Known about the structure:
- It contains eleven helices and eight strands.
- It has helices spanning 20-33, 48-52, 54-59, 69-73, 113-118, 138-145, 158-162, 164-174, 193-206, 218-225, 235-249; strands at residues 7-11, 38-43, 84-87, 90-93, 127-132, 149-154, 181-188, 210-215.
Amino acid sequence: MDRKKTEIITIASIKGGVGKSTSVLFFSNILSHESYKVLLIDGDPQASITSYFLFKLQEQNIDIERYNLYEIFKQRKYIENCIFNVSNCIDVIPSSLELSSFNSESIPLQDNLLEKRLLAVKSKYDYIIIDTNPSLGHLLNNALIVADYLVIPINSDLWAVESIDLIIDATKKVYSEDLLPNFLVTGALERQSIDKEIISELETRYRENLIGIIPKRDDIKKTVFYRKEFSLNNDYYQEYKKSLNNLLKKKQKQKRNVQL
């Protein structure tokens, strides 16, 4: 199909441990298998995405302490020089621990830096997927402002559900148009009552915004931890694929429909 415009997916939560970075990896893998060109931006100082691809970055003798998102924000490096190929159809901009200081710094037009820097490379990609810092602030604002799609992973933790409104409020403060939140339930135990209750509540409150439910599987953690090949036939992979399809079929900001 013809690609009309690069689409940016921001995956955000102000609570850690909800499968945010894992969802970034699965979505990028699914898109790359469809031969879409994907750029991953690691906007989280915890650098989970960078860690996942660390061996491949080291094989290329890349100094991620000098070439990363923070250096791009500080205008010490051009964005083109901080993009590295790590897989078929997948490039990445690494994170660094220094990025943690970004929220406390004072920089002119601080919330729009990513939007400006991406202008130089955006057209090279079909999709850009951003992993975010699990807290409110300038880092999250940058990722929200450029987003065409916002995905909020949620697990069965009550705080994860209660934090939804905080993310939505943050979106309204920095975004001039309506950016609809899309919820992805991760690590769901099909037979556990609390998970059923939370899913039921989400379906009641946000039925139109619930894009999928990912079952809890130990193999998900093993795949990411040991950097194993993604098994395309596993039920959780298929649920991620279905969820991504549901997301991209939504007409947000008059986007085209996409079927993977």
